[in-house]
């Protein structure tokens, strides 16, 4: 019946905005801010400080720690996000055994390799064939996924993929109404790696039925085509932002609520060839090509032929590379802005997938503006 019940209460907890909570009397009306309630939960040992991080072989300069730590601080969570640089997936075992392990972002080259080491994989990650988000479970039941922000022995692992969400969000946000997805809409994905897989799946979830893939190595493009071409896809919704306090929470894993297919995916053999006859030029283009080749040298600059950009209504081009932000492809797209083409750089995609990761990690609604702003500020300060 007092203030303690406010932050332990599981539903309709009264709160006030932080701008209305100033001075020593901020709790005099019996109401908390969200941040104060969070501090109380952790100070009362109802929830536990956890360690998160990004795991990969080249993550020392990753922007994820800046983004996630700023989000934790804003939300009043004493969690910490760091980098875990390694050349072997074996090193992940010691990290996972830590009772205070809260989750990890999985980076290259382990997104595919880690799938076989997991107890549960989301339908989206299964369809993509790659995992970029690792969540520890404190019991063998998948339902324990809904009980986060608590320390304890990790007995199982759940994998998900938020890369596709970042791509999907940016396409949907920037695709003009005249280019709304229709039966004849075509998408083009440049590249054939893990991010290209996520990009194809993002286009599928946008209900695009015809997708083309171009990659310098045609055989790799064909492998990506084989993974998706002619397939049907179902999507599940897992309510992962259902629990907020230490109280028992009701979360649900729902049956499939969306089905699409069959999807037509084709590989383009050469960038020098004209766009296939009888098929509308793409209005959705996603570039997933690394800036560094396998031998360590720079990748060739990608500029698309005119026939591939012949859409009468323009479209949206998403460039996933962000170091540097400005690429020859984005420069080309900006020169076509009067024809309706809209460029989207990688710094817009990065926080969108991170926002979904934060919500998977914590079960809390992410402070989206904070995360987007921190990414931009970091780049401006280091460029």
Please describe what this structure looks like.
Residues 346-376 form the SDH C-terminal domain. Residues 183-239 form the Quinate/shikimate 5-dehydrogenase/glutamyl-tRNA reductase domain. Pfam families: SDH_C, Shikimate_DH, Shikimate_dh_N. This is Shikimate dehydrogenase substrate binding N-terminal domain-containing protein. With 383 residues, this protein is of the alpha/beta class. The chain folds into two domains: 47-161 and 350-382, Leucine Dehydrogenase, chain A, domain 1 (Rossmann fold); 165-344, Rossmann fold (3-Layer(aba) Sandwich), CATH 3.40.50.720. The protein has eleven helices and 14 strands. The chain has a six-stranded mixed β-sheet with strand order 2-1-3-5-6-4. It has a six-stranded parallel β-sheet with strand order 11-8-7-12-13-14, sandwiched between helices. Helix 3 (64-75) packs across helix 11 (368-382), helix 6 packs across helix 10 (346-362) and helix 10 crosses helix 11. The N and C termini lie far apart (53 Å). Residues 238-256 have low confidence and may be disordered.
């Amino acid at each position: 019946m007092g203030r303690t019940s406010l932050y332990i209460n599981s539903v309709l907890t009264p709160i006030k905005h932080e701008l209305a909570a100033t001075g020593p009397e901020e709790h005099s009306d019996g109401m908390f801010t969200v941040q104060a309630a969070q501090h109380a939960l952790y100070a009362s040992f109802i929830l536990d400080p956890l360690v998160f991080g990004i795991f990969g072989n080249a993550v020392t300069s990753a922007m994820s720690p800046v983004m996630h730590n700023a989000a934790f601080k804003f939300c009043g969570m004493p969690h910490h996000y760091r980098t875990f640089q390694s050349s072997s997936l074996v090193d992940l075992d010691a990290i996972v055994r830590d009772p205070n392990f809260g989750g990890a972002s999985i980076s290259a080259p382990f997104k595919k390799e880690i799938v076989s080491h997991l107890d549960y994989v989301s339908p989206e990650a299964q369809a993509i064939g790659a995992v970029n988000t690792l969540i520890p479970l404190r019991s063998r039941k998948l339902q324990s996924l809904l009980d986060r922000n608590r320390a304890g022995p990790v007995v199982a692992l759940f994998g998900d993929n938020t890369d596709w969400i970042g791509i999907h969000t940016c396409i949907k946000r920037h695709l003009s109404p005249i280019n709304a997805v229709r039966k004849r809409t075509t998408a083009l994905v440049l590249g054939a790696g893990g991010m290209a897989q996520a990009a194809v799946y993002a286009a599928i979830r946008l209900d695009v039925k015809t997708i083309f893939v171009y990659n310098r190595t045609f055989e790799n493009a064909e492998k990506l085509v084989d993974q998706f071409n002619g397939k049907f896809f179902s999507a599940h919704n897992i309510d992962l932002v259902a629990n907020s306090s230490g109280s028992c929470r009701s979360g649900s894993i729902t049956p499939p609520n969306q089905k699409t297919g069959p999807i037509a995916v084709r590989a383009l053999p050469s960038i020098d060839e004209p766009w296939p006859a009888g098929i509308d030029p793409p209005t959705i283009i996603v570039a997933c090509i690394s800036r560094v080749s396998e031998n360590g040298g720079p990748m060739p600059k990608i500029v698309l032929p005119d026939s591939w950009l012949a859409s009468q209504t323009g479209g949206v081009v998403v460039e996933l590379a962000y170091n540097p932000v400005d690429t020859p492809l984005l420069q080309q797209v900006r020169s076509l802005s009067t024809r309706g083409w809209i460029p989207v750089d990688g710094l817009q995609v990065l926080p969108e997938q991170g926002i979904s990761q934060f919500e998977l990690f914590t079960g809390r609604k992410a402070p989206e503006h904070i995360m987007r702003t921190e990414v931009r500020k970091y780049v401006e300060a280091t460029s």
